């Protein structure tokens, strides 16, 4: 991590100009902009993501160099992350900052462990249960369960604000509505332009200004949970793409969404099974900061 105090001569520079000056040769302008959006910068101990803000004399500016090294770190398969495995499918506890498909965990499992087939995906920052089929027949079976809504997924999210009700549902049509930092944003659209999406939310616990919620997606649209929480006015902590704008006294390195469990009927035994992934350390730390305690069901 880099840390500087703004001098009298530097006062009045934009934060982006200040960072370019001090990180010259270490980070490109594109990487600095990406780092700001990725919450890698603090000004006076608070996260600052706007490069246009002017710095003042004696401001303390911090840049988390770790963010860059994390992006460059090679994705690797870790056998201890296997949550369930038999001859039909494998469930993996996906870490954050890791793609599912291209140059992601699918490629690493195929290269380092065994041949698998993708049946669904998780966003890059989302952690938790990720299923892979071991045969094409099982892949077709699992995909059919997803289509028939016979696979039930539960997510955990730390969100801004306090939900008015202990249970909320969002039903709308989701489609492309714009972009943010090169990434597509999905939001409410007409039935002609969007696809039907439904998510149920149940409050687990809350702090003074934040809530831990269980999320039950009834459909599987891209960014569905993230978009629906924005629609409720409670974006996920860290999800700047979907409206999170808080300045907290500590760094939030990712969108705090976790795929907690998947329930399905086994393709061979036809018994119901439930696969659970415990929340990772960074999620637990943020939960302690924002809620004040950890949900005990884990």
TrEMBL record:
Keywords: Lyase. This is Ribosomal large subunit pseudouridine synthase C. Residues 111-230 form the Pseudouridine synthase RsuA/RluA-like domain. PANTHER family: MITOCHONDRIAL RNA PSEUDOURIDINE SYNTHASE, RIBOSOMAL LARGE SUBUNIT PSEUDOURIDINE SYNTHASE A. The keyword Ribosomal protein does not apply. The keyword Zinc-finger does not apply. It comes from Candidatus Criblamydia sequanensis CRIB-18. GO terms for biological process: enzyme-directed rRNA pseudouridine synthesis. Its EC number is 4.2.1.70. InterPro entries: PsdUridine_synth_cat_dom_sf, PsdUridine_synth_RluA-like_CS, PsdUridine_synth_RsuA/RluA, RluA_PseudoU_synthase. One of its GO terms (molecular function) is catalytic activity, acting on RNA.
């Amino acid at each position: 991590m880099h840390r500087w105090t703004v001098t009298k001569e530097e006062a009045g520079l934009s934060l982006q100009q200040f960072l370019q000056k001090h990180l010259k040769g270490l980070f490109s302008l594109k990487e600095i902009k990406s780092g700001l959006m990725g919450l890698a910068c603090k000004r006076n101990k608070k996260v600052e993501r706007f490069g246009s803000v002017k710095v003042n004399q004696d401001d303390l500016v911090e840049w988390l160099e770790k963010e860059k090294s994390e992006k460059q770190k090679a994705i690797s398969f870790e056998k201890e992350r296997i949550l369930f495995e038999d001859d039909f499918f494998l469930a993996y506890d996906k870490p954050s900052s890791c793609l599912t498909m291209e140059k992601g965990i699918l490629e690493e499992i195929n290269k380092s462990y065994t041949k698998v087939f993708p049946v669904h995906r998780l966003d890059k920052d989302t952690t938790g249960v990720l299923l892979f089929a071991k045969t094409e027949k099982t892949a077709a079976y699992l995909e059919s369960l997803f289509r028939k809504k016979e696979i039930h997924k539960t997510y955990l999210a730390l969100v801004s604000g306090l939900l008015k009700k202990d249970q909320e549902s969002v039903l709308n049509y989701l489609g492309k509505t714009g972009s943010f930092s090169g990434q597509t944003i999905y939001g409410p659209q007409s039935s002609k332009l969007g696809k039907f999406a439904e998510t149920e939310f149940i409050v687990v616990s809350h702090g003074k200004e934040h809530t831990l919620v269980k999320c039950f997606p009834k459909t599987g649209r891209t960014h569905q949970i993230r978009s629906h929480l924005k629609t409720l006015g409670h974006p996920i902590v860290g999800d700047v793409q979907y409206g999170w704008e808080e300045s907290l006294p500590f760094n939030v390195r990712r969108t705090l969404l976790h795929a907690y469990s998947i329930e399905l009927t086994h393709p061979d035994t036809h018994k119901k099974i439930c696969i659970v992934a415990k929340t990772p350390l960074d999620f637990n730390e943020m939960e302690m900061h924002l809620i004040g305690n950890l949900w005990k069901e884990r």
